[in-house]
Amino acid sequence: MADGLSAEVAAEAGVAPDDGAVPATGWYAGDIERVVVSEARLRERIEELAARVAADHPGQKLLLVGVLKGAFVFMADFARALGRHLQVEVEFMAISSYGQAVTSSGVVRILKDLDRDIAGQSVIVVEDIVDSGLTLSWLLRYLESRNAASVRVVALLRKPKAVTVDVPVHYVGFDIPNEFVVGYGLDYAERYREVPYVGVLKPAVYTRP
Ligand code: 5GP
Question: Which long-range contacts (CB under 8 A, 24 or more apart) does 83-86 make?
Answer without folding.
Answer: 84/50, 85/50, 85/51, 85/53, 85/54, 86/54, 86/57, 86/58, 86/59, 86/60, 86/61, 86/62
